[in-house]
Every structure is written in C-alpha cells, then in structure tokens.
Design goal:
Length: about 375
C-alpha cells in the first residue's frame, strides 16, 4: 500500500515537473520557488557539484517521473547508508532530509536511516584526534561529542603557506592536531612582521573571527607540515540548533586555550594603523551604499572611539541575525561632536569590519573608512 507521496509528487496538474526541478543542481526560477517554497537541493552539500555530482540524482528523478514510491524510498535508503559508511555525513543527511520531504509517511525508513547515520558517526570517532582536546570532549555529552567531531574536516597543510592572514575574513575555527605554527602580525608603525606565539598540538586558533563576526588580526603560518581539524561556521550553526549546549562549552574552551597566545606587547607593537581617540558622541546609523546613499531603518548608537581610519560604536539589543547581516556592509553614521562650546554635525560612511556581542545586550561595531580622515579634520572631531 502506498504511504502517500508528498502532494507535489501525486498532483496530476503539476505531474512531476516541479519535483524534477527541485532535484536540479541549479537554483529554481522565481516561479518555481513560489510553487515549491523552500527547496532543498541534493547537491547543496557539495559546492563543486558539477565536478563530483551525486550519481543517485538521476535515478531519483526517474522514480519520481514513474511515480514509483517503493523504488524511490529504496534508492534513498541505499544511498543514505552508502554515504554514511563513507563518512560523508553531510550528503547522507541532505538525502534523508529529501526523503522526509518527499515521502513523509515512510516512517520506518526515516527512523532507520537516522539510526544508521548516528551509528556511523559514533564509529567514526577518532580517539587520537580527540585526545589533544580531551578537556573539551569531557564537557560534552556523548551525542554532543559525536555531533561536534563529525562536523570537523581533517586536513594536512604544507609549511610556509598561511592558513589565514591578518585582515582576512573567515568563518572557520582551527584545531591544531600536529606540527608547529607561527602566529604573528604586521606592525605598520615599524614596518615589520612581529611573531607573537608558537602554536602547536592542542591549541585552537581563529575564535575571535569565528564567534564575533570579525576579521583576523593575526596571520597563522605553519613552519612545518602540520595537521589541523577545521570547523566551518555553517556546520557549527547546524549542530547548535540541535545541541545548543555545545555553544557555551566551546566558547569557554576557546577562551581557556587562548591564554597560550597572550604574549606581552610593547606600545610599539600596535596592530592598528592609526591612533584611537576616546570620544562620547550619540547619534544613529543606517545601512547605506559605498558612496553614502542611505537605505533602511536607523539604529541609535554611541561612538566610543575615533581614529583617522575608522571608529567604534556601541548599540543595544541587536539580534544575532541582524548583526550577521550588518557584517561587511556599508553604513552611514550620523552624530554630533562635542569638541568646543558648540556641537558639529557629522555624517560619515564606512564598512563594518567587526561585530562583537557584549554583556548587557550591547554590541560593539567597528567601522573602517574608505579613505583616512586628514589629521586636521580629526582634531576638530575629537
């Protein structure tokens, strides 16, 4: 007896055209989006889909055209188990999501494929790769540990080729498995590269850029062939939706391991190009274009420091999704300087290079100007 395919499959009017389009490797047109709603593409887990497509896609399309529910479910189950055994969990999970979407009444198979994926994830745990970070995994439940470890990508990196560089935006967290690295930065004031730490097995690097929507303020370079495990932000967001407790535990672990990098710096070793002046200027900002055209709603803020190259402002009650949208966008800032007896209205446009959540629902936003402000103008502001 048929368990009932998704209405899109069984509809005589739409036939199977919509479903076939939902399995294409390219994005659906606007008309298709309106009929299908949110479409999960089979090739989404693999960015290089054209180079390495999922071979089952064609067979799945064929079963949909033929309205062969039994064969469709069987193909999904075989494919999910195959990719799970190959430790390609992202692909296996995407296929299972598509099974749930297309044949929601295949309850037995949906449960079984979920168990297969979890079993393979558990068997994929590598004690040797987990050992350097035992303090972290001891804090996690068994399910949390499996979810986190399964999301990691393990790779080797050659010597003298930077893993990430100063001022680069990144969405990865790096767990050092083997080898040695130099963590350093280029000091513009003295025109010299400064080495500030040796990074080795058991260290975690990149947490500021990963957790706080910021660019790297240092460069990480292996000095010998080394091994790393990488957590991508998209995978992190996915696992904390299911296991929210991982978030605080991972952040606390990174803070503890960051002590390795806290090496004293003299005043000449500043990583900022321009001197920053503390200020206290109220105003508001709005999303804009690069050349200053204002668009969107305004948000109240307070400018707390100013330099020739940029500024830092504080705003309140900014939701994480709004902060993510703001990151690397252009905004226009409207404020009034308090220099002298009379205030001076200021409007300036800059690019958001860092967004950092602070205690008490506050958020620090760092702005970089397209061109530095002349020193004479800066004196009138500060």
């Amino acid at each position: 007896m048929s368990r009932g395919l998704h209405p899109i499959i069984s509809s005589k009017n739409n036939k199977t055209t919509c479903l076939e389009n939902s399995l294409r490797t390219d994005m659906p047109s606007s008309s298709q989006k309106s009929r299908l709603g949110k479409v999960i593409l089979l090739n989404d887990p693999m960015k290089s889909a054209k180079k390495d497509p999922i071979p089952e896609t064609r067979l799945i399309k064929q079963h949909i055209r033929e309205q062969n529910e039994e064969a469709l479910v069987r193909t999904f189950c075989v494919s999910i188990e195959k990719y799970a055994r190959q430790k390609k969990f992202t692909i296996a999970e995407k296929l299972r999501e598509k099974l749930i979407e297309l044949v929601p009444m295949a309850l037995t198979e949906i449960v079984q494929t979920g168990e297969i994926i979890e079993r393979e994830k558990s068997q994929a745990l590598d004690p040797e790769r987990m050992k350097p970070f035992a303090d972290l995994y001891r804090q996690l439940s068994e399910s949390e540990a499996i979810a986190l470890f399964s999301a990691l990508i393990h790779m080797e990196v050659p010597s003298n080729k930077p893993v990430f560089e100063q001022c680069q935006f990144d969405n990865r967290l790096y767990f050092i498995q083997s080898g040695r690295f130099i963590l350093g930065y280029f000091d513009i004031a003295i025109r010299q590269h400064i080495d500030c730490a040796i990074i080795q097995k058991g260290d975690v690097v990149g947490s500021d850029a990963f957790f706080h929507l910021s660019c790297h303020t240092t460069t990480l370079t292996p000095i010998e062939k080394s091994g790393i495990s990488v957590l991508h932000k998209n995978d992190y967001n996915k696992i904390i939706r299911e296991y929210p407790g991982i978030s605080s535990k991972l952040k606390e672990f990174c803070i503890g391991r960051k002590k390795t990098f806290n090496i004293g710096k003299s005043e000449s070793q500043a990583r900022r190009q321009y001197k920053r002046y503390p200020v206290d200027m109220n105003g508001y900002f709005s999303m804009s274009k690069e050349h200053g055209g204002v668009s969107g709603l305004t948000t109240a803020m307070n400018v707390v420091d100013f330099s020739a190259g940029g500024l830092c402002l504080i705003t309140r009650n900014m939701k994480p999704e709004a902060a993510a949208e703001l990151h690397q966008s252009w905004i226009s800032i409207f404020t009034t300087s308090k220099n002298g007896n009379s205030g001076k209205n200021i409007k300036i446009t800059g690019k958001v290079v860092s967004v950092r959540q602070l205690p008490f629902d506050e958020c620090a936003i760092h702005i970089q100007f397209k061109k530095p402000i002349p020193e004479s103008v800066l004196k009138n502001i500060t």
